What does this fold into?
Amino acid sequence: QVQLVESGGGLVQAGGSLRLSCAASGSIATINSAGWYRQAPGKQRELVADIDSGGRKHHANSVQGRFVISRDTAKNTVYLQMNSLKPEDTAVYYCKALLSTVSSLGPFYDYWGQGTQVTVSS
It folds into this structure.
């Protein structure tokens, strides 16, 4: 059993900050990469940020300079620090991990968390 659990969402005012956490647990051999996605009402899911096995990061243009993805490999946890939040950031945020329950050679599959709501008021 593999489980990804997000936490840290909530209601904040524009300009505020939140830090989202995603903790992976279960029979995990190797996490290859992880990322954060979000989906606002009436919109498609979009990639916010991701981090690969070497720790290389990239962030969507819409959050560049405001959000930072990071990880704690010892805790199998990935974070999303969100600063200077805007109402447009309001969405359900989902954590995704590409991981193997078998070995560092794979097979690899995507696992998703249940999502955490982020609401930014104006």
